[in-house]
Write a structure and sequence with these properties.
Blueprint lengths: L2 H17 L4 H15 L2 H8 L9
């Protein structure tokens, strides 16, 4: 994903959080604190893979 697309995705999530009545900072803090629970070596390998299609489950 290019930088502009990543920025647009982040802004979209902030906007979505606001529309759903959440405070964006608190929402992202919660998401990032939970992230390590769901992180796995397979997810890392797939995100770094040149052919992400190999990791489709």
């Amino acid at each position: 994903m290019r930088t502009g697309q990543r920025a647009a995705a982040a802004v979209g999530r902030v906007h979505s959080a606001r529309l759903n009545g959440h405070e964006p900072h608190a929402y992202f803090k919660d998401v990032l604190e939970r992230l390590p629970q769901y992180w796995s070596p397979l997810a890392v390998r797939c995100s770094l893979s040149a052919d992400a299609g190999l990791c489709d489950l």
